[in-house]
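Researcher: Re-running this chain for the archive, since the previous output was lost when a drive failed. Same request as before.
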Amino acid sequence: PLVVCDARDKNSTLDALIALTAHLITLAGDASS
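Model: Regenerated structure tokens:
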């Protein structure tokens, strides 16, 4: 799913960054296992 960032809402932008980071960490974990 696409992450939609609303630049007017810093909280949703931060949530999107956290979700992206968690996704990348998950991918890295899957790749290393």
